[in-house]
Amino acid sequence: MTNDQFKSGFAAMIGRPNVGKSTLLNHVLGQKVAIMSDKPQTTRNKIQAVYNQSDAQVVFIDTPGIHKPKHKLGSFMTNIAQKTLDEVDIVLFMVDADKGYGKGDQYIMEQLEKCHTPVFLVINKIDKVHPDQLLPFIESYREKYDFTEVIPISALNGNNVNTLLEQILLYMEEGPQFYPADQITDHPERFIISELVREKVLHLTEDEVPHSVAAQVEHIEYKEEKDTVYVAAAIIVERSSQKGIIIGKQGKMLRNIGTQARGDIEALLGSKVYLDLWVKVRENWRNREGRLRDFGFVEEDY
């Protein structure tokens, strides 16, 4: 295989919150790099993940779900998603087959009108609807935008995902290999570990906590004598009441979060892990630019 036969490019994943972009990304890569939750706005940073074949490489950009922002963190998330449209070769507009066309979709399509690259309509969660419902669903979107391709999938079950990948590669041009073939993300381990911790908080705590929670890895060290990686991480909340929820009665909730997160971190690092977790209160951090920067939300970096 010669270099001039190698195809490569960038594909942005965009859509309303909770349509399954992170689930698709993890399925394509066969490894978790984006956290999954049934709660909206799970993805906060633009996550670049790398899909490799012997003759091709696709860099997926999993953007935060576009929504009308209510605070500075929300504005950051939406701005990142919109800017991504100008940086890629293909845009994957993902929608939920189980939900009809909504105002959030209209808002996104207004942004897509400014886009000059191919736009795929990716209909996710087809396992939740009867096949007869798909055609009218597709038409409700097609009459509002001239999509390059329309591909129904189930990201959770993997249905038709290979077809989606094949179609993406058809639209990629000859180009360089941007990342080594064994690299699946451009994010450092610290970022992924902090996201894995935050994912467990989202899964295990009540609805009043998730939107105001962040996680920050403060120290990683390999302990050779114990053949173990020591990870120290803080869970950040906005109110003392939330701190109490995450710690739980006699520390039970925090232990559960740690146990579940440790399993994923060990799979990521390929090593035994000792995970030291604690909870910090940082009032109104989502509206403070200094705090957002501390926790990795820095728009200029993108």
Task: Describe the protein in words.
The longest helix is centred in the last third of the chain and has 18 residues, at 252-269. This protein folds into two domains: 3-174, Rossmann fold; 189-301, GMP Synthetase, Chain A, domain 3. It is built from nine helices and ten strands. The strands form two sheets. Strands 1, 2, 3, 4, 5, 6 and 7 form a seven-stranded mixed sheet that branches. The radius of gyration is 20 Å and the shape is globular. The protein is an alpha/beta fold.
Name the poorly predicted regions: 36-44, 297-302
Written as H for each helix and E for each strand, in order along the chain, the element string is EHEEHEHEHEHEHEEHHEH
Largest sheet: 7 strands, mixed
Structural class: alpha/beta
In total, the number of strands is 10
> What is the second-level CATH architecture of the largest domain?
3-Layer(aba) Sandwich
Please, how many helices?
9
Report the CATH superfamily of the largest domain: P-loop containing nucleotide triphosphate hydrolases
